[in-house]
Amino acid sequence: MDRNFLQILKKHRRKYSLMEPQDVGKLIYQSEFGPEHMVCDKGQAESSLIGEWNVLPKDSGGVLPGRGEFIREVSSSLCRFPLSVCETADEAKLLAHLFTVTAGEHRGTMKGLEEKLEQLKTLHIPGMEEWAAAWKQEGYPPVHHSRIYRETYHPHYRLIKKEYSDYFPILFEIYRLAVRDKPAVIAIDGRCGSGKTYLAGVVGKLFPCNICHMDDFYLPLEQRQQNWKEIPGGNMDLERFLAEVLRPIRAGQKIFYHPYDCRKNGMGEVVQMPYCNLTVIEGSYSCHPALAAEHDLTIFLTCGREEQRKRLQMREGAYFSAFEKVWIPMEENYLQCYSIETSSSLIMDTGTLEITDKNKLQKGGMVT
User: Fold this and answer.
1) Are residues 186 and 113 in the same domain?
2) Which element (helix H / strand E) includes 108?
3) Is residue 368 part of a domain?
4) Does 333 lie in the same domain as 193?
5) Tens place of pLDDT for every residue, the chain, 368 residues?
6) Residue 141: is it exposed, middle or buried by C-beta count within 10 angstroms (0-12/13-18/19+)?
7) 324: domain range?
8) How many CB atoms sit inside 10 A of residue 77's CB?
9) Same domain, yes or no: 125 and 270
């Protein structure tokens, strides 16, 4: 059960005061089943979205995720993403892709829907009980917005996972590289606990790609310099990473490498990856200047100190003290020494979801 659903519904009713019982029913249906009933054919879904986007007034004042007055949240994991956010046809195509992926991933149950209907009884919405009874008799089919809702609020949106909405500007830059017919390398660097591995996993779900982890390229202890903790990147085998990953990618070749196993301070079984146009490199030191010439896009993730501490304590448990004493100071030394954050193309604070696009800053455009 989505225990936050009533709070979400209350927000919608405060903002959209002309909601009728069927609009409440639509919100319930969407929060439970997402867009799964709307996508029978991916090509048709994209064509329909592009057609709808094409007729929207281009001065409709689209706002980016997390901004403005449009209430997006429909559940703890899904949101309504306005078509007006898309400034170009390519962005609309990406939204169509995110929409169809969401439809394939999300599943709901009739039990969950009926639990939400039961929760509604505490709100005493006029006409809701009668409408819900008739809806149940019909077998709970998908619901359209009411006429007054459509005419008053002009809803033009698609349901997608909230994480796709949060990362939309970043995903768009990756999408532009993914559809090119030549190799592209994306580096995701940033502070530990900021979500680098998580973002790489999201990209891996959305686009055909290889994902390489910098953790696989630590130097064995006996190969590190005596003062390696004071050297930015002194624990990394960057030459091996260039030779076994980045250069083969540029040559259109398969990737073969032995990942470093910190538990035995040695190399693990060989990793083999077929050639793929898109490669994602994630982890601290992925934007090291020694590797920079091979990157097509650099993404820097960060979060506030307290948020970082909370995340790492949850993730590492008793091992957190090692991060606090060793790994975080080493990481900060590297980030400051090479100005990694300010030199990255895209910067995201995963605590606030604020994204800075350096290209748009340089062009004087809007920054999310």
Assistant:
1) no
2) none
3) no
4) yes
5) 566 899 999 999 999 999 999 999 999 999 999 997 777 788 899 999 999 999 987 654 444 443 445 789 999 999 999 999 999 999 999 999 999 999 999 989 999 999 999 999 999 999 999 999 999 999 999 999 999 999 999 999 999 999 999 999 999 999 999 998 889 999 999 999 999 999 999 999 999 999 999 999 999 999 999 999 999 999 999 999 999 999 999 999 999 999 999 888 889 999 999 999 999 999 999 999 999 999 999 999 999 999 999 999 999 998 899 899 999 999 999 999 999 999 999 999 999 999 998 766 444 333 44
6) exposed
7) 168-363
8) 15
9) no
